[in-house]
Structures are given as structure tokens and as C-alpha cells.
Request: fold
Amino acid sequence: MTNPLWLVRVRMFTTRADSPTAYRSLWDGLSTIVRTEGALGLFRGTSLALVGVSNGAIQFVAYEKMKKWGFDRKKRHYQKTGQEWNTDADKLSNTAYTFMSITSKLAALALTYPYQVVRSRIQDNAAAAQFPTIPATVKRTWAQEGLRGFYRGLGTNLVRVLPGTCVTFVVYENLAWLLRSTAEKREARRRNMEE
Reply:
């Protein structure tokens, strides 16, 4: 549903403002695409956008595996030292959550970022002759730039997404822990009152 918005965005970024083909606004871009390419033109690159869903899936799988490893390690430490595992211990440090969120996002981007480059090149109106289809875009990018070509702009993308990723995961984990511990304490008080 949002592909037309991304398409206009890419074309606005890749076209000089003084160009006769530059879109003046979102509405101008959408109407121009429908007029010149037909309604299906709004969905150029959609199949590649669906590949983007895998980015989140890879990130969450990697994050959950690292989190499980972190908890297993912490539990072993508690067992070795004879400490009791309790609600307060059932949480990793914010540093650990930050490290895991960065690492999982890097893994996901390393595997899926090339689709973003291919998608942007297909959606770029100025480069439509060079990159008309997915296979042609992949072939030409590989021939002209090699593997590095598929990771163009990755550094900028990391600067854009990593801070938000870290904040999201740290806040989520802390809120989830707070809700769990509050519910467990409430349940313990209820049990004590019943006894």
C-alpha cells in the first residue's frame, strides 16, 4: 500500500529540482506516474519491497537467539555462585540489549540490504533505461561495481536506523520486564492474602 509513496520519494531524491521531470509534490508525483506509466507504474519495485519483510524476521530471530544465550549464561552464573534466580534477576543489562539490537540489525542488513539498492535503482526514473528489470539491475550492478555496489549507502542507512533500533529494543525489554515483575508481585501478594 505504501509502495507508491516510496516510489515518489526515490524519484524526488534522484531528480534535480530544476529538472523538467521533477515532481513538485507528492500528489504531482502520483498523478504524473499514473498519467505516464499507468496505475501499475505506482507499484514498480513492489516485489522487492516484499523481500524487505525478511529484514525484520532475520533481525528478531537473531535478537531472540542472542537474548536466550544471554539469559542462559546469566542463569549458569547464578547457579555457580549459589544466588537465587528471582524476578529482579530476570533481566539483562541495557548495554546487553543495546549490543544485541545493534548486532541483530547489522546481521539483518548484511543479508537484505542489496534488495534496497536494486529496488531504488529500478524505481529511479532517470536510470530506467539502465535498470529496467530486477535481473538486468542485478547483472549490471555486479558487472560495473561488484559486491560493493549492492551495499552503496549502507553506512548512511546504519546511522539512520541503529539509534532507533537500540532505543526501541531497550525500551521494549524494560517495559516488558516491568510489566512481568509487577504482575508477579501482584500475584504473590494475592497468594499471601489467601493464605
About this structure: The chain has seven helices and no strands. The first helix runs from residue 3 to 14.
